[in-house]
């Protein structure tokens, strides 16, 4: 049975859910009951490898915009994002 990672786009709540392929996707956030509780594309196994990339990407494009000035030659996101257009 595959494990799906869900994330709430409103409050940021994240949780892995064990679901059958035939189960309907969850739609309501267990934390804030928002209807924007969406299943993430990547599988749980891949998520471990992807976490670092996602974390740096988030830092680069989200909370820490100063990263651009600190390392202009090698942005953490690898370029191509909103703050580091290639
Ligand atoms: Zn929520």
Explained architecture:
With 86 residues, this protein is an alpha+beta fold. The chain folds into two domains: 3-41; 53-86, no CATH class. 28% of the residues lie in helices and 16% in strands. The protein has two helices and three strands; from the N terminus they run βββαα. The chain has helices spanning 44-63, 67-70, and strands at 3-8, 14-18, 37-39. Strands 2-1-3 form a three-stranded antiparallel sheet, with no helix packed on it. The chain is elongated, with a radius of gyration of 16 Å. The mean pLDDT is 74. Zinc ion binds at residues 8, 10-11, 13, 29, 31-32, 34.
The neighbouring-strand order within the major sheet is 2-1-3
| Domain module tally | 2
Structural category = alpha+beta
The overall pLDDT average reads 74
Distance N terminus to C terminus? 40 Å
Sheet-strand content, in percent, reads 15-25%
Multimerization status:
single chain
Query: Count the helices. How many?
Result: 2
Quick one: biggest sheet?
3 strands, antiparallel
Model regions low in confidence, pLDDT < 50 over at least 5 residues = none
Write the H/E string, N to C.
EEEHH
Helix content: 25-40%
Bound molecules: zinc ion
Number of strands: 3
Radius of gyration over all CA atoms, rounded = 16 Å
Q: Which of globular, elongated, flat, extended, rod-shaped describes the shape? A: elongated
Question: Keywords for this structure?
Answer:
2 domains, binds zinc ion, 86 residues, 2 helices, alpha+beta, 28% helix, 3 strands, three-stranded antiparallel β-sheet
Provide a compact summary of the structure.
With 86 residues, the chain is α+β, with helices and mostly antiparallel strands. The chain is built from 2 helices and 3 strands.
């Amino acid at each position: 049975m595959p494990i799906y990672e869900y994330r709430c786009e409103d409050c940021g709540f994240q949780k892995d859910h064990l679901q059958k392929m035939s189960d309907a996707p969850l739609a309501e956030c267990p934390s804030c009951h928002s209807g924007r509780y969406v299943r993430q594309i990547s599988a749980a196994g891949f998520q471990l490898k992807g976490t670092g990339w996602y974390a740096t990407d988030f830092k680069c494009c989200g909370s820490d915009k100063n990263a651009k000035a600190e390392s202009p030659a090698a942005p953490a996101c690898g370029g191509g994002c909103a703050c580091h257009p290639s």
